[in-house]
């Protein structure tokens, strides 16, 4: 088991996720911890979500709900202290219909602009197609070439997606004590009123706390967010 480095100050961090609320579910408390220590965090949302839930193609209703979700994302970002959010518009649950290079180029553009040294993104074995595609695009955009700024890439779990996959289980090797920041995660989660669910759904407030306590038991802490370190480049 690998502990997150105690030095968390002055990092430039980019979160790359498929949908609004993935950032809070996956790494909300850890991000709040980094930000309080002086790091700067930005979040790239690759798609708007919602559309796949409406089989009738009610565009007016979809756009209304997407607008509400955008506002919820902005509210959550303010709670956590995220300095900037970038909205892309790739089609919900149809990332496999988009030229892969187009997604890679979007991530490369944001990465080259902000030059992060740490990236948080999805787990490569998620049940959710969009999540898996984003992971692949991040890894392609962050090829470890000579002038690459990204030194660490972490995968996070997203409840109601990561744990439902049987192909490639989430096996974390980094555990972050977030006891003092977990209230921020819950406050940001509650900002997503359109996405939160009732217990025992994995995206309920109670379930998210249970998950944090479960990972805490693994490393002798009370509340923990768990990650898989995908790549670390040290000098």
Which geometry do the CA atoms define?
globular
User: How many DSSP-defined strands?
Assistant: 8
Query: What do we call the CATH topology?
Result: Rossmann fold
SS field, number of helical segments: 6
Proportion of strand residues = 15-25%
| Category from helices, strands and their pairing | alpha/beta
List the domain count as a whole number: 1
What's the CATH architecture?
A: 3-Layer(aba) Sandwich
Oligomer: single chain
Under CATH, the homologous superfamily reads LmbE-like
Q: Indicate the percent of residues in helices.
A: 25-40%
Regions with pLDDT < 50 over 5+ consecutive residues? 1-6
The helix/strand order is: EEHEHEHEHEEHHE
Mean pLDDT: 93
Structure, briefly:
By secondary structure, this protein is α/β, with parallel strands linked by helices.
Structure description:
The structure is a single chain. Strand 5 (118-122), helix 4 and strand 6 (152-156) form a beta-alpha-beta unit. This protein is globular. With 235 residues, the protein is of the alpha/beta class. It is built from six helices and eight strands. It starts with a strand and ends with a strand. The protein has a single domain, classed as Rossmann fold, CATH 3.40.50.10320.
Q: Can you tag this structure with a few keywords?
A:
about 240 residues; alpha/beta; 8-stranded mixed sheet; Rossmann fold
Topology at a glance:
Layout: E1 2-3, E2 12-17, H1 22-36, E3 40-47, H2 59-80, E4 84-90, H3 100-114, E5 118-122, H4 129-141, E6 152-156, E7 174-177, H5 182-191, H6 205-219, E8 224-232
Parallel strand pairs: 1-7, 2-3, 2-5, 3-4, 5-6
Antiparallel strand pairs: 6-8, 7-8
Helix pairs in contact: 1-5, 2-5, 3-4
């Amino acid at each position: 088991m690998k502990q997150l480095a105690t030095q968390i100050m002055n990092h430039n961090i980019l979160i790359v996720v498929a949908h609004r609320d993935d950032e809070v579910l996956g790494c909300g408390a850890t991000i709040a911890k980094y930000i309080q220590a002086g790091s700067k965090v930005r979040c790239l949302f690759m798609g708007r979500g919602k559309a796949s839930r409406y089989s009738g193609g009610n565009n007016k209703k979809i756009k209304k709900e997407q607008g509400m979700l955008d506002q919820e994302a902005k509210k959550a970002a303010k709670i956590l202290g995220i300095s900037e959010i970038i909205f892309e518009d790739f089609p919900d649950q149809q990332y496999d219909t988009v030229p892969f290079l187009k997604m890679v180029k979007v991530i490369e553009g944001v990465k080259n602009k902000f030059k992060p040294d740490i990236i948080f993104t999805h787990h490569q074995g998620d049940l959710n197609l969009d999540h898996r595609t984003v992971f692949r695009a991040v890894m392609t955009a962050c090829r470890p070439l000579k002038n690459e700024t990204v030194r660490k890439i972490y995968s996070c779990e997203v409840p109601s997606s990561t744990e439902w996959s049987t192909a490639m289980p989430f096996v974390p090797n980094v555990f972050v004590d977030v006891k003092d920041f977990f209230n921020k995660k819950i406050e940001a989660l509650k900002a997503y009123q359109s996405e939160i669910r009732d217990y025992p759904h994995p995206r309920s407030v109670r379930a998210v706390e249970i998950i944090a306590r479960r990972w805490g038991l693994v490393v002798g802490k009370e509340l923990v967010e768990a990650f898989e370190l995908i790549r670390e480049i040290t000098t």
